[in-house]
Give the backbone structure.
Amino acid sequence: MTQSTPAIRLDRATKVFPSADGGSFTAMREVTLDVAPGEFVTVVGPTGCGKSTTLSLISGLEPASGGHVSVAGTPVTSIPATVGYMFQQDATLPWRTVVDNVALGLRFRGVGKAEARSRANDWVQRVGLGGFEKYYPHQLSGGMRKRVAMAQTLITEPDILLMDEPFGALDVQTRELMQGELLRLWAGSRAAVVFVTHDLTEAIALADRVVVMTAAPATVKTIVPVTLPRPRDVDEIRLDPAFLALYRQVWDSLREEVEIARTKGASRG
Ligand SMILES: Nc1ncnc2c1ncn2[C@@H]1O[C@H](COP(=O)(O)OP(=O)(O)OP(=O)(O)O)[C@@H](O)[C@H]1O
Ligand SMILES: [Mg+2]
């Protein structure tokens, strides 16, 4: 892959689902977006607009109905090995310990048990869970389970990291802590990230660029570059006047779409 090859390319990607009434529903319409290797892109948009669908297309879980999707210059036809996906729900297995849960990603990729376990041990430390190796998920807090999920995803050293509202269920303090951890781990990996969130502060604090999607069907409405210097302190950055100006810009763009989505929702119901 040369420097000019995008890590992810969506070229007029469209997704049409069959709807319950026998018709069809367009969830994404001609979404065009390039994500560079090592770039952190966050995606915001009204609920139901097609953000998760966009991640499904990049990950190969769903085929595009039109347009093209490629990863590292190769058209996506199945789930690319270089993609890590962190879902909104926990993906931990309740009957496995922390270290065995973290090792899963490697075991699925055919790494032997002893090596997987030793690398998992290392990752458990890196996400700050040292001492909890033998705990089961139900013995952990929500924030700790997210740490397990991060280690589970990052241990495979993905070139592309897809994250769907990963911290949405956490309280504000834990969420900020996890954002800081994610930035620290990402800086060490230089993976390209697509991170979906409803939290504009999170979207701006993490991103190199914030993508604002339209109300359904999703298409790219605005892209706001975030040139705030890195490394960033996510608690402090919110108070920066440049941050507030970006917040205003993203919210002005998103607000119109939220209103459109609400009006459509009301007319449907
Ligand atoms: N497999 C599917 N079959 C039919 N329709 C689907 C399917 N997956 C998603 N949709 C529809 O596509 C639209 C977009 O869904 P999607 O999950 O991408 O939204 P979203 O932007 O992630 O929303 P939220 O912010 O609430 O998570 C929704 O109307 C949804 O019902
Ligand atoms: Mg979603």
